[in-house]
Amino acid sequence: MISQSCRLLRLMQLVWHLLLGMIAAHLVLGAVHRLARRHADPQRHVQAVVQWWNRKLCRILNLRIRIHGRINPHPTLFVANHISWLDIVCLAAVLDARFVAKQEVRDWPIFGAMAVRNGTLFIKRGDTNDTAMAADQMTWSLLQKNNFIVFPEGTSTCGMTVQRFHARLLQSAIRARAQIQAVAIAYPHPHGVNPAAPFVGEENLLPHLWNLLGQPAIEVKLTFCRPLSTQAEDRRALAYQARDQILSTFGDTAGFREDLSA
Fold first, then answer.
1. Tens of pLDDT along 118-165?
2. What is the C-alpha separation between 176 and 22, in angstroms, rounded?
């Protein structure tokens, strides 16, 4: 743990950056969207602002991202395992892509507003009709050469397992003939997973954030696996392949186990 004075300094930096996020979400991103629409695809300009904000947030939280593998340059549906809300920050810092998130994220302070501006698709968990409509929107967007990020587990885990991947949203990549790339997210630690990283169940955000501010550094490993072709494949087979790719990256992680119930 770092000293109390350093933690308070990082807290002040965080508060200031969150205030900038509020301004960006409610004023800057809206203005950028209106101006960019006159000249080119506005999503690219909005994404640049969102990416800058998330990169700065990673520096404040002392998240040290290491990228392994090659990010697919073609229209892609990125699928990742889910451990923490930090996953979103890290992926948003390195990828030019829109997210698919649960409906509750829309109401998060600051993060929710920025997610709306960045074109995040919100779905109601367990609502098959809502998921189907989201898949239709994703198909159209992928055809426009926009990328998407989904967490097919549908929930976060402790980082020591990968649950079953739900396949319905992967249908969008098949329809658009886009590629799928699995992203393995890990928070390496001598004992397996950094205990400060996971955010699961009914955990409260503020205590979790305060604990993060007391950490000297948190290593984040993002492994981009070999892209999967969606030609002549069904969505369940693709979900299985993507999950298997992610599982294979954890083969040498101490204590990691596969969720056999999946």
1. 778 888 877 788 888 889 999 999 999 999 999 999 889 999 889 999
2. 34
Q: For 13, left (φ over 0), alpha (ψ -120 to 50), or beta? A: alpha
CA distance 157 to 77: 21
pLDDT tens, position by position, 161-209: 899 999 999 999 999 999 999 999 999 998 889 999 999 877 888 899 9
Residue in the block written with tokens 């209106």: 34
Stretch (H or E) spanning 55: helix 42-60
Identify the residue whose tokens are 């992203």: 183
Residue with tokens 């098949």: 174
| Strand spans (E) along 51-178 | 63-69, 76-80, 98-102, 121-123, 148-150
